[in-house]
Design brief:
This protein is mainly α. It is built from six helices and three strands, in the order βααββαααα. The chain has a three-stranded antiparallel β-sheet with strand order 1-3-2.
Length: about 120
């Protein structure tokens, strides 16, 4: 796996919440306590002008599926709105037995228009 400082392994707090089945607030609490690692990035449209990017490898113990290269690529594409890759992330979780998390990803994929997720 690539080093954790690689920007391709950073996800937003909302994606981190979906990957773990936790709330955004839990993710922020974990960041503040040092349980996971991340960095703030400038986002001028937000009230405080910043948002969090979380290092995916630092969350591995909280994500109930293996962080393979294929899985990480699907997550990155899903994060930017790719409906098919969102379904693929759901399938990874389903195969790992993390059905509650899989359902959240399938619902998101369906909202994004993926016919397989709708089915």
């Amino acid at each position: 796996m690539m080093p954790s400082s690689d920007s391709s392994l950073l996800v937003c707090a909302q994606t981190a919440a979906l990957l773990t089945g936790k709330t955004d607030r839990t993710i922020i609490n974990w960041l503040e306590s040092g349980a996971i690692k991340g960095k703030t990035v400038h986002a001028g449209h937000l009230p405080r002008g910043q948002t969090w990017k979380i290092e995916l490898p630092s969350m591995a113990e909280y994500i109930p599926t293996e962080l393979t290269g294929e899985f990480i690529e699907s997550v990155k594409k899903a994060e930017v709105g790719d409906a098919r890759e969102t379904t693929n992330v759901a399938i990874y979780f389903s195969r790992s037995g993390a059905n509650k998390i899989a359902v959240s990803w399938f619902e998101l994929a369906a909202k994004r228009g993926d016919a397989d997720a709708m089915h």
